[in-house]
Recover the amino acids of this structure.
């Protein structure tokens, strides 16, 4: 499993985003929630008759 605290720290560093130490715990908690929600979506089984969406070409 991903280390969310390390992910938050490295991502903030990568995009040069100052992260106030006071706000860091809240950011970590929100990313933990995002991971839980994303798992619900990515692990949802789709029936075989579902077709992929067409590619948009402007």
């Amino acid at each position: 499993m991903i280390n969310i605290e390390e992910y938050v720290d490295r991502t903030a560093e990568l995009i040069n985003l100052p992260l106030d130490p006071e706000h860091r715990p809240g950011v970590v908690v929100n990313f933990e929630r995002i991971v839980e929600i994303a798992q619900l979506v990515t692990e949802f089984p789709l029936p075989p008759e579902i077709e992929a969406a067409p590619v948009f070409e402007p």
